[in-house]
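Practice problem: predict the structure.
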Amino acid sequence: MSKFLYFDGDGHSAMTFPVDRLLSIDQLDDTSVQLTFEHVLGTTSSYTKVDLTVDTGTEKAVMKDISEAIAFGKDQFIVVADSVNSNYINSSITAVSVDDSGANNNSGLTAGTGITGGTGTVYHSFSEKNGNIIKTSIFVDLTGLAGGADGDIIGKAAGTANCHIGQYTVAEVGTIFAASLTCLELPLVGPDDIEIHSGDEATGAEDAAVSGLTNNTLLAAAGAAFSATQGGTIPFVALPAADQYLYIVDGEGDTGVYTAGQILIELYGTE
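Answer:
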């Protein structure tokens, strides 16, 4: 299973990178460590760099902790530096600078406020390109989101609107030819029978029937076995139409609010 490195310097420039795009971890000086990643769009001789400010003389320890988390850690989603929540892989890290400008970065899709507004909910999306193949990943930590009746949209409780996890556009994702859903962490309290649907509207609300969306399509039905197999992956049984929005849907009827649970959706398209 792939691992991902997460950085956030100010709450507005968060980036998540697959570890197989990491080229090097370098000491710039006594208080700086820099991580260099391949260009996420595959541009030759172009790189994305993340700078960590660390306490004097701790560069080696920081580099060691990052390396060991990648090589031996059990977590697939590795928070290296999150300044917003003061969460660092090593306590000697004091700041992080993320380069999110220009063509060197692609932040992927954008979720609606009914997802990002959840307490403790984490959403990240990014794209990477290999030749003319575009892979778009969507990571969601379900903590803070809620289900409803069987077939209802999952999102921030109290009927919050705009619970989509991103819009599929050909310009951003390419023409999709395959997709999958993976359980990274077992869901707790909330519904563990999870489905992925698509619809024409961005306004789908938590606890509302997904069938109310125009051209609603079931893309993936995980079933109860999904929650019992961390790391399990299921392929999509259908693909969304261009310009549709994606939704996480309750497949069993459980109104609980998630205290844990992480999923990864991967979309593969041709440019």
